[in-house]
TrEMBL record:
Annotated organism of origin: Panicum miliaceum
Name recorded for this polypeptide: DUF1618 domain-containing protein
Amino acid sequence: MSAAAAFPSWAILEPFVFRRDDDASFPDETKAPVRASGTTSWGAPFRIAFSFAEPPRVSRLYVQLPGFPGPDKQTPLVILATHRHLTLLRVATELPNFVMVQDFFIYSAYNPSSLQRLPPCTEPSGQRRRGHLLPYPKDHEGVERRILAIRSMGLLCRGEGEEFAVAELKLFTSRSRNKVHADIFFLKSAVPAGLCGEKWSSMRVPILHSGNPDEDDIRQLSLWNTDDVIPIDRWLCWIDYSRGVLF
């Protein structure tokens, strides 16, 4: 069966990733015909395989992670988001010097045999920014990879092409405690090739309210904890089940 023929028009994807490190337990092409391989920025190879089923049956993602810590110690690969024909994956591990490293990959149903590794985010976090003007001056730009908060990340795909954006949201309360801003870190693909830009970008925007916010509104926003990120039309919506929706 070809990879193209293996794709249903839509699928219900199990969020749990099934790890099968040895060849005997990793599904063969008859069971999981949609396959791709990748290599992390620290040189670790891995393979994935999709086993698609017509809804209401559930489709599965299998992964082979040789050389990674065992599943009782770490969960190296997770599905972060899906939208249209794209899937956002995160691969991470802890190095021997106790430093956490992470890579992000885009999988496209239009190019089912490959994974696109995204460049690392080197944008400084909110604690290292001043005011509302971003990006930070070039002579202050960080050169270290920043660990992104995966619960606050979303994927937005525009139409049926390869144009997409990956974004992370961080809320920042002003020193006066009377305003809340959103720091948005994002990476956009280039059109039409679907190639990512050289680096991430960022912007700081104020949180706009429908009325005049009182102290409790500000306090609730300062306690924001993203539970889910959902693409709707041309928007990414960040959801806190206790406090509402930001978009």
